[in-house]
Design brief:
Structural class: alpha/beta
Number of domains: 3
CATH class of the largest domain: Alpha Beta
Helix content: 40-55%
Radius of gyration: 28 Å
CATH architecture of the largest domain: 3-Layer(aba) Sandwich
Distance between the termini: 69 Å
Strand order of the largest sheet: 3-2-1-4-5-7-6-8-9
Order of helices and strands: HHHHHHHHHEHHEHEEHEHHEEEHEHH
Strand content: 5-15%
Amino acid sequence: MITGTLKSKIDRVWDAFAAGGVTNPLTVIEQISYLLFIRRLDQLQDAKDEMESLGIAVDNPIFTSEQEEFRWKNLRDKAPSEMFEIVTRHNGLFNFIKTMNGNGTAYARFMKDAVFIIPNGGLLSKVVDIIDDINMDDRDTKGDLYEYLLSKLTTAGRNGQFRTPRHIIKMMVEMLEPTPEDTICDPACGTAGFLMAAGEYLRDNHPEIFRDEKMREKFNGPMFTGYDFDASMLRIAVMNMVLHGVENPNIEARDSLTQASEGISEICTKLYANPPFKGSLDNDIVASDLLKPQASKKTELLFINLFLRLLKVGGRCACIVPDGVLFGSTKAHVAIRKRLVDDQKLEAVISMPSGVFKPYAGVSTAILIFTRTDSGGTENVWFYDMQADGLSLDDKRTPLENGKHENNNIPDILARWKSSAAEADRARTEQSFMVPREEIAGNKYDLSINRYKELVYEEEEYDPPKEILGRMKDLEKDILADLNELEGMLG
């Protein structure tokens, strides 16, 4: 969770950019990302230096002896004008970070068009001083820092993009429990929040990855695939992954729904997504295999078809969808739900409160969890009515008191999900319960929780009508007496 101290430091960085004339939020995040990356490189070189001091041979040092001035610990002490010259000259530090990973890597592809736009040494020096004061040794701190930076994008982006809260991402990742055997994809990755969280989950739960050369190579490259069509988002995504220890993620510039992406299939065993829901697309630009089994222009339906195409058989998906997907009555809506329930294995529907995505949007959404089987398998679907996520559901999204179920349902969701057998006996009046496939099919595959949840009405007891009328008459007498007394006072 973002601390007041860290928040204050980032606000100072933000204010410094604004005072220097750099006001576009996405541009500011890009420029801060470059500086964070430069600092991270110095930390990585320190680790290599320590290994050498212990007599361990180190291949491929990040900085040569001629590039010592590029190291953060040396750069931060320079005078503003000298610092600016080191960063911006033709063969300077910024050109170095643009080209350091060589040709062919995701980093190189998206950094080649990067532009350093901090206008002068005074602003650069001020921002470097503030960033230098932030503790970057802890991965959680880096995550909190990036989370708060991205929260500065306070309005929905182009084409329906908006940021997924990190605690929702972590919950979804934990529900699918990725392993070293998995390949993980987000076909609308934005800043790579899901991919980064999956990587962090693997670090925390499967440290054996880093003791095995083949698994380590997989982790640093082909394990993670992300697509997006926004160049700025892709640059931030790559730096986000590199800063979190994934050296060469498979991140590509690609509009996943168009014909340019047709034919890409069965590439992952775990898929996480909160794709942009931007209304409708013209059929002539949509990949033809996404228009089956029922043609639709709705992006939220096209994306579900895409997820099934990208998953290998046996692969699992956790995705966020707008509520309309759950109960829409068009042929296309019913067809996609029927496909999930009858042809695949639909496992869970988690209804989320509408404030989860504020201040970006107040839309009502749900999380779907399903496995691609192509042969059915749905028996019972687990429904959960999430009513709180640990933060207020207004535009401020302030943290609520921890440890109370009514303030945060996420721990309960995870606990019940992991012991789902016990959910079979839960009544429909509870916050979570199971619904059999046959009942869902009989309701036109409606997946809205309100279709199945039973409300409990508390019985109210009232006094007999004659007693109520008697009290009303007594009250009227008191009022009349007060009026008579007031009239007498007035003469």
